[in-house]
Design goal:
The chain has 16 helices and no strands. The chain has a domain at about 215-355: Serine Threonine Protein Phosphatase 5, Tetratricopeptide repeat (Alpha Horseshoe), CATH 1.25.40.120. The longest helix has 27 residues, at about 260-285. The chain has helices spanning about 20-25, 30-55, 60-70, 75-90, 100-115, 120-130, 140-155, 160-175, 180-190, 195-210, 215-235, 240-250, 260-285, 300-315, 320-340, 345-355. Helix 7 (about 140-155) packs antiparallel against helix 8, helix 9 (about 180-190) packs antiparallel against helix 10 and helix 10 packs parallel to helix 12 (about 240-250). By secondary structure, the protein is mostly helical. Pfam families: PPTA. It is an enzyme of class 2 (transferase). Belongs to the protein prenyltransferase subunit alpha family.
Length: about 350
């Protein structure tokens, strides 16, 4: 293991990486333009709703819905009207309507344009799913294309949970195996350890892999090895520690895993965490401000938190060395109180709840 660096020079912004100041500091000219755009939008929306109320289901009306949805993909009512127009274009009842290849392509292209405007639009993603459910032909080719589209959107925003959910659905339709999905999350995590969404998706897949795999313990061992590599490389990255805790719960809560195996895995993790803590403390000794200085405690903090958690799990499972583990838990929490003053009351409450203070 080696000392891990922390990310520097971050620019903190509001949601979607848009500075709050950029919205507040509008000139009168810019505000006037926005007001004019708002009027045009309301006028278009009113026209569309008038057509809908009159029962107009023409190609021209559909074009108007596309025009509005490219500007505001979150307008549920206009998406619903667009689907009514599609139903009217067919010769069957709505419940049995199928999208011909040209219609499906048009809808997928249009909704993709809407998603470029707002990548987290619920109704736009739903419309794509709605079209996939009604494909008349070309299903396999379309599904592969959709997986590629998901990859592009996740390249832009790896935490877009709408896209992750949609990809999960597409992968199911395309017959992608849990193992293949697992490899996909690993590729995403190798590109960026901080990808919470990829870890979340991995946790969902793990259940099926562990349950139906030939060796559940082997699967969990591989995952512990995988996350251990990440925590050594980026010890201050909370996403990996979240997944670490999830894996430990998967081990200790599984009634099919013998107590002896659970304790063996936990002993292994205590050894790894002790080593990581030792390495990070040695690294901080080279820093004149030492481990308790602002920022420098982050590299060791999460390893200590997890070490206390694993030791507590061992005690709860009735290990033979409970007294030694209890003393170590106490030492770890006292260390955390020193290096993480902002959360010292939490650590003190943990000691009290464990009867160690």
């Amino acid at each position: 293991a080696s000392c891990a660096g922390t990310q520097k020079g971050r620019i903190w912004r509001s949601m979607h990486n848009v500075s709050k100041a950029s919205w507040r500091n509008r000139s009168e000219e810019e505000l006037a333009k926005l007001q004019e755009k708002s009027k045009l939008y309301r006028r278009l929306e009113s026209t569309i709703f008038d057509l809908r109320d009159k029962g107009t289901f023409t190609s021209a009306a559909k074009d108007l819905t596309a025009q509005l949805l490219r500007v505001n993909p979150d307008n549920y009512s206009v998406w619903n009207y667009r689907r009514q127009i599609l139903f009217a274009s067919g010769e069957t009842a709505p419940e049995s309507w199928k999208a011909p290849p040209d219609v499906a392509q048009e809808e997928l292209v249009m909704s993709a344009e809407a998603l470029k405007r707002q990548p987290k639009s619920y109704p736009a993603w739903y419309h794509r799913k709605w079209i996939l459910d009604r494909l008349e032909s070309g299903r396999e080719r379309t599904l592969q294309s959709e997986l590629q589209l998901c990859a592009r959107f996740l390249d832009r925003d790896e935490r877009n949970f709408h896209c992750w959910k949609y990809r999960r659905y597409v992968a199911h339709l395309a017959g992608v195996t849990p193992e293949e999905n697992y490899e996909y999350t690993e590729d995403r995590l190798n590109a960026n350890f901080s990808n919470y969404s990829a870890f979340h998706e991995r946790s969902r897949i793990l259940a099926s892999l562990a349950e139906y795999g030939e060796d559940k313990i082997s699967t969990l061992q591989q995952e512990l090895d995988f996350v251990q590599q990440i925590t050594v490389t980026a010890p201050d990255d909370q996403s990996a520690w979240w997944y670490y805790r999830f894996l430990l719960a998967a081990v200790t809560d599984d009634a099919d895993i013998p107590i002896e195996e659970k304790l063996r895995l936990l002993r292994q993790e205590v050894g790894r965490l002790n080593e990581l803590v030792e390495v990070e403390l040695e690294c901080n000794e080279d820093d004149p401000s030492n481990v308790a200085a602002a920022g420098n405690g982050e590299n060791v903090k999460w390893a200590l938190v997890m070490l206390a958690h694993v030791l507590t799990l061992r005690i709860e499972l009735g290990e033979s060395e409970a007294a030694s583990s209890s003393q170590r838990v106490k030492e770890v929490y006292h260390s955390l109180i020193e290096i993480d003053a902002d959360h010292q009351r939490y650590y003190q409450s943990r000691l009290r709840s464990l009867g160690m203070e």
